[in-house]
Amino acid sequence: MHSHDPLIRLDKISFSYPGGSPILEDLSFTLLEHDRIGIVAPNGSGKTTLLHIIMGLLPPSAGSLELFGRVMQSEKDFREVRRKVGLLFQDADDQLFSPTVLEDVAFGPLNMGKSKEDAISISRQTLGRLGLTEFEEKITFKLSGGEKRLVALATILAMEPRILLLDEPTDGLDQDTKKHLISILSELDLAYILISHEFDFLTATTDHMYTIENGKILVDEELHVHVHEHAHRVGAHPHRHV
Q1: What is the pLDDT of residues 6-31, one digit of tens each?
Q2: Given the DSSP bridges, would you call strands 216-222 and 62-67 parallel, antiparallel or unpaired?
Q3: 93 with 84: CB under 8 angstroms?
Q4: pLDDT tens digits along 179-201
Q5: Is residue 102 within 8 Å of 139, Cβ to Cβ?
Q6: Please, what are the domains in the chain?
C-alpha cells in the first residue's frame, strides 16, 4: 500500500435497520493518511452507524468498503485489520471490562501477542501520555464518566492503531479535560474521524468538517479559523459554544 492510497474508501454504501427507511444511501467517502476529519450532524443521521460499518460491526446493504487498499468482504477480513483501527465507542462502559485501569489498557497489547512485561510497559507509557499515570490501580467501574472516556482512549492507543474513529469523545468531560484531549489529539500522528456536536472542539482538532444529510456525506470547505479561534462556517446548522 502506497502512502497516498486511501486508508478507508467507502463506495456507494447504503444501510437500513430492519423495518426502517435508509439511514445511509449511496454514501461515498475516503480517508487519507494524516486526514483529521470532523463529522457533525443531527442525532439519527447515521454518524455512529457509519463508524460501525467501517469496523465491520454492521454489514451495509449495498456498496463496497476498502480498508488499507483491501476490499472487506467477510468477518475474517475485518478481524485481520481491526487492530489497525481504534474505535472509541460513544459509551465508555461498552469498552471497559477489566477490574483495574492497567489491566484494561494492557488487554489489547496482550491480545495482539505482546508479552505480559511488554504489554504492561506499553500500557504505562500510554497512560503517561494521557496524564493518567496515577490511574493504574484504580477500579475501572468507579471512575467518573470523563475519566472512563480517557481510559477508553488509552485502551485504543495502547494497540498502536493507524486510524482512530472517535464517537463523541467529549461526552462527560469538563472544560479542563477537553483542553487536555485537544492537546493529546494534536500530538497524535494518526488519521482520524471524529464525531462531535461541539463545533469549537471540532475546530481545534480537525482539518475538515463534514456533515451527513439524506444519507450522504456533504463535504464542507477546509476550516478557516478566525483570529479568536472560532470557526463560523456552519451555515444553517444550529450550534452552541462550549
Answers
A1: 999 999 999 999 988 899 999 999 99
A2: unpaired
A3: no
A4: 999 999 998 999 999 999 999 99
A5: no
A6: 8-222 (3.40.50.300)
